[in-house]
UniProtKB/TrEMBL annotation:
Annotated organism of origin: Candidatus Daviesbacteria bacterium GW2011_GWF2_38_6
Protein name: UDP-Glucose 4-empimerase
Domain NAD-dependent epimerase/dehydratase: 4-236
Family matches, as SUPFAM superfamilies: NAD(P)-binding Rossmann-fold domains
Transmembrane segments: none
Length: 342
């Protein structure tokens, strides 16, 4: 697997993955509609071939020259999915299945789909695994469940479908996001010396650093097909299920002057689940975690301080995905179906 197409290549995970693939000598092509082209933190000037296209409009793109597709492009979190639930289905589910069918028809050997543990929603079970009942609470989570189920049907001995169900991601990427729980708490701690917590701090969430996840996507390119084909695999580390209060404690240790304020309101995000990664560990025994939360938090805080990240940088039009999209719509840069207006 040398010639790789990465959709969503200009996103938070994509930017880190592209760099790692290039470093390792893969021939990389990206495909992205570039919603977040200005959401850059630090220096970012990647040199790779980019197809600027919407994943809903790929009919004329020749896929036969690729060995594998890593499919990241999506409305990529719960709030974005709620902009328009039909649109979420069109981009996250329908376009995914159309892309996979086209890839299979044109001879691509492997299709890696970026699913999400958020489809576990709220779970009363102690710890969920791949056999647990899913509980998708949002259009986003439902689009992940539907895509997984349909992609399983497309898999066969010539077309390997990998279904990593990823933990919530955190850490530094040059295409930065501060709408992810850890990043959001850290940017607030650095810029305001205050963190506002919109829950009682008890919800559980499995977390993974973006650089560790990018390495795992590359591992999926290289693992034998018979071990993973058509199977869902939770992606994360067993000691990386955290409660929000644990995250706060780690940040407080590193930004000691920061005040934590529990607002008493109940935020929109009601998810809480703990996940088992035993299957991942058994299939990828040599994959090690390089960026545990403490190390990644220290690294992000150092980078933000060096860049003199301040209150003005917290402007939601910078690193908050739903706000960036809403702004593009209100400025009539993109239409309500999220196509660019030329
Ligand atoms: N970030 C997380 O915590 C997390 C966790 C689990 C799974 N995932 C999944 O991983 C994938 C990547 O996540 P991310 O955090 O990098 O998201 P992101 O929003 O930062 O990046 C997504 C990229 O896809 C592009 N895109 C969106 N719609 C498109 C379309 N119609 N056509 C072409 N390009 C389009 C965007 O421009 C963006 O660059 C998503 O599928 C997401 O659901 C993310």
């Amino acid at each position: 697997m040398r010639r790789i197409l990465v959709t969503g290549s200009d996103g938070y995970i994509g930017a880190v993955l592209i760099n790692k693939l290039l470093e390792k000598g893969y021939e990389v092509t990206g495909l992205d509609t570039l919603f977040f082209k200005n959401s850059i933190l630090g220096n970012y000037n990647p040199k790779y071939r980019l197809i600027k296209s919407d994943v809903r409009q790929i009919q004329n793109i020749n896929l036969s020259k690729f060995d594998a597709v890593i499919h990241l492009a999506a409305l990529s979190n719960d709030p974005m999915g709620e902009i328009d639930t039909v649109l979420t289905e069109e981009i996250n589910y329908k376009a995914t299945i159309d892309l996979a069918k086209k890839a299979k028809k044109e001879g691509i050997k492997r299709f890696i789909y970026s699913s999400s543990c958020s489809l576990y929603g709220v779970s009363k079970q102690e710890i969920v695994n791949e056999n647990s009942k899913v509980n998708p609470l949002t259009a986003y989570a439902k689009s992940k469940v539907d895509s997984e189920n349909e992609l399983k049907k497309i898999a066969d001995e010539k077309f390997c479908v990998c279904l990593p169900r990823n933990s919530t991601v955190f850490g530094y990427s040059p295409k930065f996001r501060d709408d992810l729980v850890v990043n959001n708490l850290i940017t607030s701690a650095v810029a305001l010396k205050k963190i506002f917590v919109k829950s009682d701090g008890t919800p559980w969430r499995p977390l993974i650093d973006v650089r560790d996840l990018a390495n795992i996507f590359i591992d999926f390119l290289n693992i034998d097909s018979y071990l993973v084909n058509g199977q869902v695999i939770n992606i994360g580390f067993n000691d990386s299920n955290y409660q929000v209060n644990d995250i706060l404690k780690i940040i407080k240790e590193q930004v000691p002057l920061c005040a934590v304020i529990y607002t008493g309101e109940h935020g929109a995000d009601t998810r809480s689940y703990r996940v088992s990664f035993d299957k991942f560990v058994s299939l990828f025994p040599s994959t090690k975690q390089e960026w545990p939360l403490q190390r990644s938090a220290r690294d992000l805080i150092d980078k933000l301080e060096k860049l003199m990240f301040s209150e003005k940088d917290l402007n939601p039009n910078n690193y908050n995905r739903i706000e960036v999209l809403k702004r593009l719509i209100s400025d009539e840069k993109i239409d309500k179906k999220l196509f660019w207006i030329h």
